[in-house]
Amino acid sequence: MLSLRRSLRGVRGVSLYIAPSTRAVAKGLAAQAARRTAVAAPYSTKSVAFTADTYGSKVSRDEKYKKLDDADTKYFESVLQDTNGLITDADDLLFFNEDWMRKYRGQSQLVLKPKTTDQVSRILKYCNDNLLAVVPQGGNTGLVGGSVPVFDEIIISLSNLNKIRSFDDVTGILKADAGVILENADQYLADNGYIFPLDLGAKGSCHVGGVVATNAGGLRLLRYGSLHGSVLGLEVVLPDGTIYNSMDSLRKDNTGYDLKQLFIGSEGTIGIITGVSILCPARPQAFNVALLAVSSYETVLKVFAGARRELSEILSAFEFMDGKSQILARRHLKLDHPIESGEYPFYVLIETSGSNKDHDDEKLETFLGNAMEEGLVDDGIIAQDETQLRNLWSWRESLPEVTASAGGVYKYDVSLPLADLYGLVDAANEKLVEANLADLDDESKPVVDAVGYGHIGDGNLHLNVCTRVYSKEIEQVLEPFVYEWISEKKGSVSAEHGLGFQKKNYIGYSKNDVEIEMIKGLKKHYDPNGIMNPYKYV
Amino acid sequence: MLSLRRSLRGVRGVSLYIAPSTRAVAKGLAAQAARRTAVAAPYSTKSVAFTADTYGSKVSRDEKYKKLDDADTKYFESVLQDTNGLITDADDLLFFNEDWMRKYRGQSQLVLKPKTTDQVSRILKYCNDNLLAVVPQGGNTGLVGGSVPVFDEIIISLSNLNKIRSFDDVTGILKADAGVILENADQYLADNGYIFPLDLGAKGSCHVGGVVATNAGGLRLLRYGSLHGSVLGLEVVLPDGTIYNSMDSLRKDNTGYDLKQLFIGSEGTIGIITGVSILCPARPQAFNVALLAVSSYETVLKVFAGARRELSEILSAFEFMDGKSQILARRHLKLDHPIESGEYPFYVLIETSGSNKDHDDEKLETFLGNAMEEGLVDDGIIAQDETQLRNLWSWRESLPEVTASAGGVYKYDVSLPLADLYGLVDAANEKLVEANLADLDDESKPVVDAVGYGHIGDGNLHLNVCTRVYSKEIEQVLEPFVYEWISEKKGSVSAEHGLGFQKKNYIGYSKNDVEIEMIKGLKKHYDPNGIMNPYKYV
């Protein structure tokens, strides 16, 4: 890595100091390996409490829904024509019933894994006709309990619908089944000189369809914009089995309401996305990643303003992490911090990507040189090769796992005006300390710490309350306090993670009554029987 | 201007040849002046036939709608509390009843110009309760007859709702009344270092709200993406007077269906947009514009592929014009072509914009040098200053006026797969010549020529059939032929101009039955009485 502190003068010129990279590489690989096993690991420990028990006072099974019987299962067998497509074994079901944070656990007795859109259509039509409730499930990497059942809903997994359908290397339009894993889609595009216009930590597990159904934002929204802009068409099975198909849409098409938009972020409540057509940009030729240490949140914002001005069209990510999240990362990953010179209150990860490495280097060096001369940056490193670059990203992407490592985590994914953004972390900590619930080192306290990181470029904070155990007491301190705080600042209670089960009752903090009525109206319009992902969203 | 042909060697190095620019400046200014008066001019000549007469065989007034009476007018007076807000004078009404292409003319007896959202709400509620049909109208620059009445619908003009509400110079979020003129919004943003993420020829007249209501694409979609990605929130008055307001939304907000998306491109059929919140990018520091002459459409595509690869993140526009459109431009503008060395089959206008002029120049010069060495570009010029840059854009932007200058124009705004795109112009010409209707110089023929230009970067062709007179005969040759041709290639019959009145019956060429049913379902859901912009869209 290039160390900025040790070579401020060098940054402005050509003679860059390059730090030995071997240890950094080892670090990153360890972090990566840890991240890869993070999802699987929890299933070996004791099982999670049923959502029906944990939240029994708030939600009960709607008895209008039919209970699954043998005749239903037989019908589904006839549709799938493959017994591997049905999961009924209790042990096997566990993986689909639980979310990866181990907060929610449903009691579904049946997972269906259709291989074609037509099978999805026949399944849904049957469920709709018979009032069988369903939960669509992608990679099950969601953070709000949206992809697991609350009670006995049938799980429809898209994991067997996993083919790339086509790619046009002139226009960059990729058409894929919903169940294609994001990382696979991006690798396929990389082989063709293109890039998926979205990236996130769960890319090794999450599905393209799930990403669209939850309107995921991720790490590069700053550069490539939201899925509402890049998704060109969808194939969606509506609750009555009707197949809506706009997969042939070109980049511009102004003939009628843009129906596909309704399904982007609909979290499986009005249809099941089975296919996605998305416009992919050319893969940048040159990437740079820098990790910077700064002394205050205000300085983070100043660095951001400078980056937008000076890096402009090549700025592709601007992430921040607070110092407390880095303490936890060091402990959990058992690694030195990439910036070795000390502990700092805030860290910023900047990525640039462009078509000309020399130009990008020059822009980045000028920007960093200015930032250091102005005293905005206390220390920093620049990745010098692909491995170092990946390692820095791995460090950032390990945070969801790090923050859950003490036992559990309450995750709040919020949008706030930039000036107020970090104030929420301070406010949450204050409340937890006041209630005598939090201590970094005292194992008797249920909360380790409330830490913050996220996508400054999008005004998106991830507040993570890292806990040793989940408890009603913590929840009562945090909610509705956190939502009220956000509402007061006119933020959103869910920037990118969605509503799911967790935030169903908190939509009123981000949406007004007219909006909520309109949302309910659309839900009823498309899913009059309410079979799709019930007890959630709205 | 920098001439490429005379300085191919220079392009690769530093010693660029700069052509005398005075004549070019004069040209551009003349073109600009001509463009500015283009909309106003037609109103001085004889009046347009009523749509009700021209299309009487296809559409008749729906007698469920109430006819305006004095009591209605009195009520509207009481709402607006300003007699200037009502237009009832026959001469004054003409401007609002006719579209600028002079193809459509309604017979409205009343134009209302509310000054507040609340007034719009009270007007709509009254109209809905009394079954009075309405047409929302922005700058009335549409190309499909969507913003003028077909019969006696009341026109609700947004022109008095014309204030910038707020601008946040940290996030780039602009909030504006719907009636703010696009050019004014962009000038306001320029003063603050930002840019409106959309630009189009009619910017001096069209409204921000109209642009959103029609999901306009324009000249820089290639760089900044569609409005579905950049609009953050809307204020919309629904047919029953309810005010939907999502103006406080931040960049990311995943709480419920993204309702605002429905109104982007809804052409006034389910609500009236009264306010727009939009995310604006930082204004690039450096712009370059080059105009290139190439020998074939295939070569246009090759130049485009190269530009995407080599100009990548700084490419902000890639426009093409066929040689025939340039012949008409020379005649109408009475000016030499910016490229003086001869007539070429195709022309390409490339714009780059970025944060570092030196870097951009180097990228553009490398790209153009390569293109010329490969024999892709026959001649070309690069604007050397702001005035030359504007002049080249003016030349391109004069085409809508140029193509209408012989008397009238049938405009087809279509999306097609790139390889097929220009084939439609050839096919249309063939049909017209076959029917003995077209000749460039023979004044007895109704059609001058069918020409093509548009946004290659978006797969968007503007086919313009330039006529001396409008006639049923021409229309019968062109329709449904053009739509069938597009449908066969899986294109869209409206890339960016919308459906309006012109294409209401042709949506089936771009949308399948399920989609059309879903669109009709939403129309009925939001406008059960059908008072909003009837006889159009779907």
TrEMBL record, chains A, B:
Pfam families the UniProt entry points to: FAD-oxidase_C, FAD_binding_4
The reply to whether Cytoplasm figures as a keyword in the UniProt entry is no
| Tagged with keyword Mitochondrion | yes
GO molecular-function terms, A-Z: (R)-2-hydroxyglutarate dehydrogenase activity; D-lactate dehydrogenase (cytochrome) activity; FAD binding; metal ion binding
Q: Which catalysed reactions does the entry list for this protein?
A: (R)-malate + A = oxaloacetate + AH2; (R)-lactate + 2 Fe(III)-[cytochrome c] = 2 Fe(II)-[cytochrome c] + pyruvate + 2 H(+); (R)-2-hydroxyglutarate + pyruvate = (R)-lactate + 2-oxoglutarate
Q: Main location per UniProt?
A: mitochondrion
* GO BP, one annotated term: lactate metabolic process
Q: Which family does it belong to?
A: Belongs to the FAD-binding oxidoreductase/transferase type 4 family.
Briefly, what is this protein's role? Answer: Catalyzes the oxidation of D-2-hydroxyglutarate (D-2-HG) to alpha-ketoglutarate. Also catalyzes the oxidation of other D-2-hydroxyacids, such as D-malate (D-MAL) and D-lactate (D-LAC). Exhibits high activities towards D-2-HG and D-MAL but a very weak activity towards D-LAC.
Name of this protein = D-2-hydroxyglutarate dehydrogenase, mitochondrial
The source organism is Suhomyces tanzawaensis NRRL Y-17324
